[in-house]
Amino acid sequence: xxxxxxxxxxxxxxxxxxxxxxxxxxxxxxxxxxxxxxxxxxxxxxxxxxxxxxxxxxxxxxxxxxxxxxxxxxxxxxxxxxxxxxxxxxxxxxxxxxxxxxxxxxxxxxxxxxxxxxxxxxxxxxxxxxxxxxxxxxxxxxxxxxxxxxxxxxxxxxxxxxxxxxxxxxxxxxxxxxxxxxxxxxxxxxxxxxxxxxxxxxxxxxxxxxxxxxxxxxxxxxxxxxxxxxxxxxxxxxxxxxxxxxxxxxxxxxxxxxxxxxxxxxxxxxxxxxxxxxxxxxxxxxxxxxxxxxxxxxxxxxxxxxxxxxxxxxxxxxxxxxxxxxxxxxxxxxxxxxxxxxxxxxxxxxxxxxxxxxxxxxxxxxxxxxxxxxxxxxxxxxxxxxxxxxxxxxxxxxxxxxxxxxxxxxxxxxxxxxxxxxxxxxxxxxxxxxxxxxxxxxxxxxxxxxxx
Length: 452
Fold this sequence. Notes:
By secondary structure, this protein is α+β, with helices and mostly antiparallel strands. It has helices spanning 104-108, 129-134, 156-165, 169-176, 273-283, 287-293, 296-304, 310-321, 326-331, 335-346, 351-362, 369-382, 388-403, 407-421; strands at 3-9, 20-26, 33-40, 42-44, 51-52, 62-69, 75-82, 88-93, 140-147, 177-181, 187-188, 192-198, 201-202, 224-229, 232-236, 242-244, 247-249, 251-256, 265-270, 431-435.
């Protein structure tokens, strides 16, 4: 007797290596009785894949309730029966609440924000993205930013100074680097526009997915996303190239066009259902669900494959570092800690590798304080972390060494704190507000007193 399950969603034939976290309860006269925590594989609607749920292998006959936690915090429930001598198959249809089929991943991960309830009762005409981008002072525009020569202008010290200078959106863009317009969404409807971005640019503008073969000492020019609107400008650590076995996976950016008087909203998701689901859990504060979905072995496996997928390896490293059960993480083989050394040393363009290496000391109690100190400042020198929780760990490390009297850490902490204050904590990938207004600041009039 077997119990096989699947959570069915609109994945557009993508494969998810892990699924959704949930709980099983047995229906009893006195009320539901908890049976087990389980992980249910997530499959596309076109897939017939179902997987055995081992904790239910010897479950007694009866009526049961499955409750799955979705990445946006909602619950999907399904009742089922286990009968003696008969196999059981349970399929949960994940509700699709986005405005279009192609927004399903963003909707499920909580990337879609509710429209204002104050909208006028009459139909609202939303402009096209082309119209918004043509006048970003009243709309919204997207650009890829490649730093000026050497990447110095996107160093953390320079960014801290840029934020404190309180420049306009245009002035900030000029300081950051060369801007390449993202002009064409791959899908667009009245209220939303979807862009697919790879290291080479926007797929809607003719860019193509690449293949990457990273090696020890590999270098890579960072590409950032600049979002400009009437609210100012934000610089995003764009997670490209995101790769699986060396093959590039697109990053999806969903723009929700602004309602009258509202601010445009946007979200980034990875075209990898397992990673995207875990990021959705973390974004909504469901750390336990994220750790259960990508457990120790899965996170360790992500880190192991750093040569073919360094950004996914960094995510695996963060899950290992932020694991909740310290006894499990300290009692297992320490090989993954040495892999963090390699993630740091092999990828000079990856701040997160150095941050993770340093966090072994001030998070997990590693004894190598000097090595952690060097790695922390190496991460600072590499620029903006890709992940928002990387910035949090960098802050924690600098505060630790600054509290011990280190002047260099004190100076860099003073530069980093304005960056942290300007960071949007709702985004998984670091999103930094580099300008709070569109217009250039006008010189304030000076009052002159005339003497008789």
